[in-house]
Specification:
Layout lengths: L12 E2 L3 E9 L3 E8 L4 E8 L1 H4 L2 H15 L9 E7 L2 E7 L3 E3 H8 L4 H20 L2 E2 L8 E4 L4 H4 E3 L6 E2 L21 H5 L5 H17 L9 H10 L5 H4 L5 H10 L11 H14 L2 H4 L13 E3 L5 H5 L3 E3 L20 H9 L7 E3 L11 E3 L8 H26 L1 E3 L8 H10 L3 E7 L9 E5 L5 E3 L3 E7 L15 E2 L9 H4 L5 E2 L5
Parallel strand pairs: 17-20
Antiparallel strand pairs: 1-2, 2-3, 3-4, 4-6, 5-6, 7-9, 8-11, 9-10, 12-13, 14-15, 16-19, 18-20, 21-22
Helix pairs in contact: 4-7, 4-11, 7-10, 10-11
């Protein structure tokens, strides 16, 4: 889409501060612009509510109230809300500008993802939703359009969830807004959002499960002629297993999608934090063959299409499939040598016709590009003594270089990252890498028991091969101690309405346990 489309707000300055530079996208509730904060000299994204919604005072008041709540969410995977403003018919949010693509754009370019890529994208999405759920917020509109992927870094730091400005308190619950309009997108609505207009953290879990299904298959689970029909299918049909669309996907991925998209909200993980733990556990238990299922191999054959490994997000932002075109030189065939004559007499004649010196030999090359020269046979070429000395110096330098490398870093390796993996998977990987892990445990309110929450040394740090490392495994939430009340004195009294009035004025008496 042309980012410079003509729009009435482009070129204006809102609140004397934000200069609207260009249009980014239009949504069902708002339009997003790229703008410049002239006060702080930074690029921001302005989410301007549509005028028909901005005319309702009640909706605007709630929008501002919820925007202030969303601004309190601080998380590396959440698009930050900087400012909000309502004046002159314009109601907007000033948010962090992410220079990248939406997950929707990547899905349109690539189709489906490998399981490894899908889980690596979903994990930070769930981490962001989990932070909101811990703060009592529900997103209500989890979909690929609201998942932004920056142009550099790993997925863990580049994935950001947007549109928290339209989220609301989980205690409020309702998703029905003006004139009975349901907030959300039909393809990702949980059944309870459609039936009763009420949602909680489990509704976000359902939407995240649908997003996972779409990343694994490249298609939405339900397609119909209208959004109402799509919503109807979410209420009455079960989200299919991804392997039904893409045979060969691991059953653990099917189980993950089925559990997250259960029609009964009570059968889903209670919030995004619990689903995040299940995703990391599944990721840690799946073999590489299952995680990389469906990846197209890279090849030098010009007749095949090679898929570049998405090692950096810069390559993710370009087209995923690259046609390897042959060079003109590579397409030229080498002509076969002329056939030798079969007549022996003719062969002898041909050999005599070659006029080469009778007593000359070829001088050996000292480099691949040096032409070979003819020297007299009685004066054969001999290498210079300097060549021997140079060879000795080169060998000594190589030996010293190898020795220096071994002393400085050859006997060390990088500490693998096993955080957020199950204890069993972490131990297996560390043992496979030749390390000797020790296990300690600690309470953690947000990570379930049995999942690694820390390592010593830290991931990517240097550790000696065969050395000892320590992993810290979560014991789950810390139990709350209940005080022992045995032997305490108990105060008992009778309801005054069932006691004669002359007794109700008597002083309460204390009794020891077992006495009245």
């Amino acid at each position: 889409m042309d980012k410079t489309l003509d729009d009435s707000l482009v070129g204006q300055v809102l609140d004397g501060r934000y200069r609207v530079d260009s249009l980014i996208a239009r949504g069902g509730m708002a339009t997003v612009y790229r703008a410049t904060d002239r006060r702080l000299d930074r690029v921001v994204a302005l989410k301007v509510m549509h005028p028909e919604l901005a005319r309702h005072d009640e909706f605007v008041s709630r929008f501002i109230r919820e925007a202030k709540t969303a601004a309190k969410l601080t998380h590396p995977n959440i698009v930050a809300v900087f400012d909000q403003y309502a004046d002159g018919g314009h109601v907007y949010l000033a948010m962090e500008y992410v220079n990248g693509q939406t997950l929707r754009e990547l899905l349109s370019d690539r189709g489906r993802f490998t399981p490894r890529e899908a889980l690596e994208i979903l994990a930070p999405v769930l981490s962001a939703l989990g932070a909101a759920h811990r703060g009592g917020m529900v997103h209500r509109d989890v979909k690929p359009e609201n998942v932004l992927i920056a142009g550099e870094g790993s997925y863990a730091h580049a994935v950001k969830v947007a549109d928290f400005g339209l989220a609301r308190s989980a205690a409020a619950g309702a998703t029905v807004s003006l004139a009975g309009m349901i907030v959300g997108t039909a393809s990702y609505l949980a059944p309870e959002q459609v039936k009763s207009g009420v949602c909680d953290a489990r509704s976000d879990v359902y939407s995240a499960g649908v997003v996972l299904y779409e990343m694994l298959t490249g298609a939405k689970p339900f397609v119909a002629d209208s959004p109402i029909q799509v919503a109807y299918r979410h209420v009455h049909d079960r989200v299919p297993e991804p392997s039904a669309e893409v045979p060969g996907l691991d059953p653990a991925l099917d189980a993950l999608v089925v559990r997250a998209t259960a029609k009964n909200a009570d059968e889903r993980p209670a919030d995004a934090n619990l689903l995040h733990a299940e995703v990391m556990r599944t990721f840690g238990n799946l073999p590489d063959s299952a995680l990389d299922f469906g990846a197209l191999p890279t090849t030098d054959d010009p007749d095949n299409t090679a898929t570049a490994e998405l090692g950096s997000l810069a390559s993710r932002r370009t087209t995923a499939h690259t046609r390897l075109m042959p060079t003109p030189e590579a397409t030229h065939a080498v002509p076969p040598p002329p056939p030798l004559p079969t007549n022996p007499t003719r062969v002898e004649t041909v050999m005599r016709s070659v006029k080469a010196p009778a007593k000359q030999v070829l001088k050996p090359r000292t480099s691949p590009n040096q032409p070979r020269e003819l020297v007299p046979a009685d004066q054969p070429w001999r290498p210079r003594r300097g060549h021997y000395a140079m060879a000795v110096v080169l060998v000594v330098a190589i030996v010293l270089g190898i020795a220096a490398w071994w002393v400085s870093s050859g006997q060390f390796r990088s500490m693998p990252s096993v955080i957020r993996r199950s204890q069993e998977a972490a131990l297996a990987e560390l043992n496979h890498d030749g390390l000797h892990p020790d296990v300690v445990t600690a309470y953690d309110d947000s990570v379930p028991a049995g999942v690694v929450i820390g390592t010593s040394p830290n991931p990517s740090s240097k550790v000696k091969k065969g050395g000892s490392v320590t992993i810290t495994v979560s014991r789950g939430p810390k139990p709350i101690p209940v005080p022992d009340q045995a032997g305490q004195r108990v105060i008992r009294c009778s309801p005054t309405r069932s006691v004669p009035a002359r007794w109700s004025r008597r002083r309460l008496r204390t009794h020891s346990p077992g006495r009245w």
